[in-house]
Amino acid sequence: xxxxxLTLDVPAEGGARYWMTGLNPAAKLLAAxxxxxxxxxxxDAVTGGLVLFVVLLTVPFSGVDRRTLMxxxxxxxxxxxxxxxxxYLYGEQGLEGAVxxxxxxxxxxxxxxxxxITSDPTEMSDGLVQRLKVPERPAMGVLAALRLIPLLADxxxxxxxxxxxxxxxxxxxxxxxxxxxxxRLFALLVRSIRTGTLLATAMDARAFGTGPRTHARIxxxxxxxxxxxxxxxxxxxxAYALSARLGTLVxxxx
Length: 254
Known about the structure:
single chain; 254 residues; mainly alpha; 8 helices; globular
């Protein structure tokens, strides 16, 4: 693969460090979806913790550096901590329930994040259409959204620098920080709507959605993709079995 992924520049001979980028995006998406659905019933810390531990072991083979992972995973980490805090303060299971909620959220979010970072947007779209038989309209929407994420990040940076040049600084006032943040967020929303309108017009002019389309590239399904799904299923079964054996398994509706 070339350097066409969402956030990664993958060298031609990446080796084991970039193993995950060579998998079919459809397989990675299915694996992340299976983990998300499979962990919904389990609210204990052991089941989600084991899944999260194994997923973390695959990070060195994704090609994602620590800075990128922390930058993109920071919001999910914050969500996990806040979910754990709320469950600790108002839940009935105390610290155990809080840890379980935080770990389960992170175990659900991290596989999806890795699938998005390590997948080329065009290959993701091809995999959705050719392998998962997703209709072309939503698949093209996914492709457009993934392509626009870096653009929105650049626009956020531009808006921040432009407002700073005009003297709109929060200083040490926390209320000004919140007020200026939502102001920048509204400006980004306006820009994203304009960008989306231009993109929709351009796609309309190129006859997207008017009939069946051909594919420039074939989305190949390899043995490693099948092994990934088998391994995901085995991981979920093993996590539930271990938790049940230890007597820590707590189901959502039990």
